[in-house]
Amino acid sequence: MIATTALRRTLRFGTRGSVLARMQSRWVAAQLQRRHPGLKVQLVVCRTTGDRVVDRPLHDIGGKGLFTKELEEALLDERVDLVVHSMKDLPVTMPLVDASALTIAAIPWRADARDVLVSRDPQTLRQLREGAVVATGSLRRRCQLLHIRPDLTVHPLRGNIDTRLAHAVRGTYDAVVLAVAGVLRANLFNPETMWVIPTDDLLPAAGQGALAVQCRADDVETYRLAAVLNDARTRTCVELERAIVHELDGDCRSPIAAYAEIEKDDVLRLRAVVGGRGGAPHVIRAQARAPMASAEDALAAVMCSLNKQHAHELLAAAAAATTSRPLTRSVR
Questions:
Q1: What's the fold here for domain 4-111+210-230?
Q2: So what's the architecture of 118-197 in CATH?
Q3: pLDDT tens track for 256-269
Q4: Which of the listed residues 89, 128, 131, 202 has the most CB atoms within 10 Å of its CB?
Q5: Are the CB atoms for 140 and 199 separated by under 8 Å?
Q6: Are 13 and 82 in contact (CB under 8 A)?
Q7: Which one of 55, 77, 89, 201 is the catalytic residue?
Q8: Rounded CA gap, 173 and 159, in Å?
Q9: CB under 8 Å to 263, separation ≥6 — which residues?
Q10: Does residue 87 contact residue 18 with C-beta atoms inside 8 Å?
Q11: Is 89 a catalytic residue?
């Protein structure tokens, strides 16, 4: 524990303005204050491009990096000392900010990484009526949903978590799919209208459910303060997932899912799903297991399998198709 009397200043947290983002930042702040008694924290709200532009799919305007761009710029400009991101929002390739002077000080223990289906009538994915309209802005979800249920119509949907949940409650769509971690963190989980989707049906995005605590690389004091929240096992899993996206040159138009989990006896299981044209239901899958001490072996095996299945070619076709096809097209 670092003596707070040695601190030169109040720790300024940069955060997006959404309810969920502020709750996540407050959670991280509370964890730090519990470990460093007397630490003072100030939340600084930064409105991001991703929050301002809500009427267009993210893959049309620059990807999820639009949720992190202004936060990283605030760090670089020393307007804040630390920011909390949803890890899946941090770009793996094609960053919008040169983050070479920044570092991830901590990846705390991960929340539930799965997706959740929200509907006025409690039902599973397979129980939805034939031809049901399911809303999600994710190409990753789209291709996997249509792989299981090719009769569905997948409609694009963006907005804060409360906005998306409201669409499901009002019945605008038959169902809405989003990450369950955000629903849980916002204390909005309702078992009467929500069904958590097994990862065998819908594999998560790389880093889903995890948070990233970022600071300037040369700010040793802040780094040391934040690093106490790092969970080494979560970090290993998330880094392997992001490595898959990196190896596949994935970007905002790439339907890629990647999920690592630690099973009994410290065996790591790594899975990946890559989607087809425009998030269409043709998907390829790969998985491997390895001891935690040799986790990179699982990555090598998964990438070998994906390469044999021509994942790069599939993603190149997906990127080209997404620019010419609307996300609302139903694949039957």
A1: D-Maltodextrin-Binding Protein; domain 2 (3.40.190)
A2: 3-Layer(aba) Sandwich (3.40)
A3: 999 999 999 999 99
A4: 202
A5: no
A6: yes
A7: 89
A8: 15
A9: 269, 289
A10: no
A11: yes
